[in-house]
Amino acid sequence: MHIDILSVIPELLESPLNHSIMKRAKEKGLLSVEVHQLRKWAINEYGQVDDYQYGGGAGMVMMCEPLEKAIKELSQAGAYDEIIYMTPDGERFTQKHANRLSLYDRLLIICGHYKGIDQRIRDNYVTLELSIGDFVLSGGEIPAAMVVDAIGRLIPGVLNDETSALFDSFQDGLLAPPVYTRPADYNGWKVPDILLSGDLKKVDEWRYEQSLQRTQEKRPDLLDHAE
User: Fold this and answer.
1) Contact (CB, 8 A) for 122 and 148
2) pLDDT value at position 9?
3) Mind listing the pLDDT tens digit for each residue in 187-217?
4) Before 192, cis peptide (omega within 30)?
5) Where are the alpha helices (H) located in the chain, listed in sequence order?
6) In the chain, N or C terminus with fewer CB closer than 10 Å?
7) Three-class DSSP category at 3
8) Domains in the chain, please, with CATH?
């Protein structure tokens, strides 16, 4: 999979995309991520990519011309399966989005900044608008990094144990069950006996029951959509 990201502050993405699982994915050749400085396509020698908004009001708007030039040039390497814009008024990003997007070959993510991007780019180029929550950040770089991480770890071969992603929270609409590791008894705090029993069928049943219980307690809204 290849992902291009357009940003006016690409430095914000350097660390999240070059460590841990994302680093492993790139080293294995399973995922390539290229962050592009939008000012490369600026309208003038001063690197301008934004301007005042029509109708007045505070805040600058990212212009059509730099964005369109960037999209057209980057598309020459191959058509994108989705052109994604990170914005507070987009669809709430979920595990289902991550699952679907992980199956694609080429994605482009546009990181908004200032007051956002000119609506005409959204109308004519963007195919998917995503939000990570009901709050506003300084730009779309951190949300973009989160989306790339969520997608990248699902690519077969990225995780050492490929089945581990299948049991993450939200994969089946439920929160993950509690987990434990050695020692079995720490300060008198004991691991549930069922996990030490060796009976995998009963362990699976216990984990499912715990997932249901945890979801009911912490996120009952998810049960309406659980599979």
Assistant:
1) no
2) 96
3) 999 999 999 999 999 999 999 999 999 999 9
4) no
5) 20-27, 64-75, 95-101, 119-124, 141-152, 200-218
6) C
7) strand
8) 2-152 (3.40.1280.10), 169-224 (1.10.1270.20)
